[in-house]
Design brief:
This protein is an alpha+beta fold and 130 residues long. It has one domain: Beta-Lactamase (2-Layer Sandwich), CATH 3.30.450. Helix content is 40%, strand content 30%. It has 4 helices and 5 strands. It has a 5-stranded antiparallel beta sheet with strand order 2-1-5-4-3, with helices on both faces. The longest helix is centred in the middle third of the chain and has 16 residues. It is globular.
Length: 130
């Protein structure tokens, strides 16, 4: 699957999706984005650095390393794979793409979305080879 196809499938298949994007964690860059509603450019501009901070900020990395140590895990693999955030009217899903763990899929859905369906569809996407 290509990056563009993953984003197109996110908008088409995740219930009530209003936006989807891919963030490259290594560079901190937004690879691609698609929205079905208008979103302020300022929000789009900081999506990638905010996503990087969520997954790889200093304290998050410290927590990951402490959990690995406590569980006897000796790996460079990232511990946190998914993050779900509720805002006033939306749900924001962030998930590492399994075949490319330095790539994070972000999907934004309307607040009245069926959470189980949203998570299931997003997980299908992040588990599809990119």
């Amino acid at each position: 699957m290509t990056e563009e196809t993953m984003i197109k499938d996110s908008i088409s298949n995740v219930p009530k999706a209003v936006a989807a994007g891919l963030v490259d964690m290594a560079s901190g860059m937004l690879l691609t984005i698609k929205t079905v509603e208008s979103h302020p450019q300022e929000v789009i501009d900081i999506l990638a650095p905010a996503t990087k901070e969520l997954f790889e900020g200093e304290l998050v990395t410290t927590i990951e390393n402490l959990w690995k140590k406590a569980r006897g895990v000796d790996s460079d693999e990232h511990y946190f794979q998914e993050i779900l955030i509720s805002s006033m009217n939306l749900w924001h899903y962030f998930g590492r793409v399994r075949s490319k763990p330095e790539t994070v899929l972000t999907v934004v859905c309307r607040g009245d979305v069926n959470m189980g369906m949203m998570i299931m569809k997003c997980r299908e996407l992040v588990n599809t080879p990119l």
